[in-house]
Amino acid sequence: MKFAVTFEQDEDGYIVVNCPALPGCYSQGKTRGEAVSNIREAIQGYVASLRKHGEPIPS
C-alpha cells in the first residue's frame, strides 16, 4: 500500500512529513531519509490501528 506524502522544512531545519490521506499522520527527521523512514513507521502504525478497529483504509 502506498500513500502520497508532503515535505516541509521547519524553522529549526527539521524535515516535517505529512500523509494527507491519513488525517493527523505526521512525522519528522533531521534529514529527508530519516523523515521518510519515520513516516513509513507512522503510516504502518496508523494502518494497523485502522485494521484493529475495523475502520476502512483509505486508498
Structural features:
single chain; about 60 residues; alpha+beta
The portion of residues assigned to helices is 25-40%
Shape from CA axes? elongated
How many structural domains in the coordinates?
1
Computed structural class: alpha+beta
Largest sheet entry: 3 strands, antiparallel
Strand content is: 15-25%
Distance N to C terminus:
8 Å
Oligomer: single chain
In total, how many beta strands? Answer: 3
Query: What's the tally of helices?
Result: 1
Uncertain segments: none
Global mean pLDDT: 97
Placed side by side, the strands forming the largest sheet appear as: 1-2-3
In short:
This protein is α+β, with helices and mostly antiparallel strands and 59 residues long.
Polypeptide structure, described:
The chain is of the alpha+beta class and 59 residues long. It has one domain (6-52). It is 36% helix and 20% strand. The chain is built from 1 helix and 3 strands. Strands 1-2-3 form a 3-stranded antiparallel sheet, covered by helices on one side. A hairpin with a 5-residue loop joins strand 1 and strand 2 (15-18).
Helices and strands in order:
Blueprint: E1 6-9, E2 15-18, E3 26-29, H1 32-52
Antiparallel strand pairs: 1-2, 2-3
